[in-house]
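Quiz preparation item.
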């Protein structure tokens, strides 16, 4: 009888053995890459965008490897896989580092041994494991404490918990800040990002101002931009060249990613990758400043909050009534959100509550009109991407609950095919 190879690959024993082999191979390979400067990008939010921006600054100057996509967890052996993609000719390796559990960062440090660490912020994430912001900061600080006198730390001086991590460090420290009083080497001011305009700001380095234009949506990306420019400057990239490189980087997939359905004249802001309450607040700020014929929101739920289901739903309903003219809610808390939106002033016919994202997509299909700006926001586990995808093609997957913690766009079981003819119906993110 032939062995079931798929079942074998899924078995816990095989997975553990593969992790061990990957870990050992990456540990050895990292120590062989003596000519490569390893840059670790850490923080609660903004890691992926910072990584992409920094890689764009470095690649024209010297061969650079940067971690793929958005995976940064011990669970997926992301650091091991990134290290094994480094080659002797790479001058730089930019790798984002995340944590899910206590002890994760110490394991990453032993494996990666970074030369440069960028610490962006400390926010509410993984609250089941880390009960306080101080606990999150303590875990992240392990990465900085590993640095020696020849290493470098780039710190966001505007985040008090990040700024406090500087105490006791043995490495060189460079700060960036929106305020000059922090003694930062790189500062910034004049941040604007009112949709449909993109993020613009003025960065000051070595006393000289640089006007920075980006393709990013929202003021909250300013720290990511300045962090990338700061690191690029330290690693020898002329600031003018780095500013030019940043201007060409598109919004990362599902991070306030604008996508236009050209046949309908509707623009979506897809932000459904991260459902933490802090990312909701950043998205709300974008909508408050946005100019559009009509603002529409599609919400499921948010994470990293100790509020009850009912209170979370009501909070989203109140915000929907404040920010939008059409609100759609998906999931087990949808009726709480819809009731709160109506109570706070949205007409009943402008509110929808649905158990499934596909039903929500059908509602949008009937009610969207040219000129609409639609924010899609929710937890990855709620799979609200199905609502958007259902406007492009039939979505055959109705799994609920679904154990996958990935976007439906990349799910092999969705039954949705990215066919060439669909390109006529949408503008790709790189074109926006």
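Solution:
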């Amino acid at each position: 009888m032939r062995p079931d190879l798929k079942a074998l690959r899924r078995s816990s024993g095989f997975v553990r053995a593969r992790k061990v082999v990957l870990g050992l191979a990456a540990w050895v390979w990292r120590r062989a890459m003596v000519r490569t400067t390893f840059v670790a990008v850490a923080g609660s939010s903004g890691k992926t965008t910072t990584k992409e921006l920094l890689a764009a600054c470095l690649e024209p100057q010297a061969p650079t490897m940067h971690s793929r996509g958005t995976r940064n967890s011990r669970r997926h052996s992301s650091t091991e896989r990134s290290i094994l993609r480094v080659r002797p000719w790479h001058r730089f390796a930019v790798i984002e580092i995340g944590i899910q559990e206590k002890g994760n960062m110490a394991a990453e440090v032993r494996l990666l041994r970074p030369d440069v660490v960028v610490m962006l912020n400390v926010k509410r994430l993984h609250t089941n494991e880390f009960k306080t912001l101080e606990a999150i900061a303590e875990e992240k600080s392990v990465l900085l404490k590993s640095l020696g006198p020849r290493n470098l730390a780039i710190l966001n001086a505007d985040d008090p918990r990040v700024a406090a991590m500087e105490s006791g460090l043995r490495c060189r420290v460079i700060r960036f800040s929106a305020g000059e009083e922090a003694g930062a080497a790189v500062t910034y001011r004049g941040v604007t990002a009112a949709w449909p305009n993109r993020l613009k700001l003025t960065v000051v380095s070595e006393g000289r101002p640089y006007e920075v234009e980006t393709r990013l949506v929202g003021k909250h990306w300013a720290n990511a931009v300045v962090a990338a420019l700061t690191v690029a400057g330290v690693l020898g990239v002329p600031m003018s060249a780095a500013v030019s490189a940043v201007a060409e980087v598109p919004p990362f997939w599902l991070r306030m990613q604008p996508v236009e359905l050209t046949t309908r004249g509707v623009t979506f802001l897809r932000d459904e990758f991260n459902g933490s309450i802090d990312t909701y607040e950043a998205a709300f700020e974008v909508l408050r400043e946005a100019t559009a014929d009509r603002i529409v929101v599609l919400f499921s739920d948010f994470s990293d909050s100790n509020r009850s289901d009912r209170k979370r739903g009501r909070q989203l309903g109140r915000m929907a009534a404040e920010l939008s003219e059409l609100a759609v809610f998906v999931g087990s808390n949808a009726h709480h959100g819809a009731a709160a939106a109506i109570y706070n002033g949205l007409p009943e016919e402008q509110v929808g509550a649905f158990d499934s994202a596909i039903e929500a997509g059908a509602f949008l299909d009937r009610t969207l009109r040219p000129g609409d700006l639609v924010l899609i926001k929710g937890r990855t586990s709620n799979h609200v991407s199905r609502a958007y995808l259902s406007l492009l093609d039939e979505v055959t997957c109705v799994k609920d609950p679904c154990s996958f913690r990935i976007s439906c766009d990349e799910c092999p079981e969705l039954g949705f095919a990215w066919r060439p003819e669909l390109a006529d119906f949408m503008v790709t993110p790189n074109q926006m």
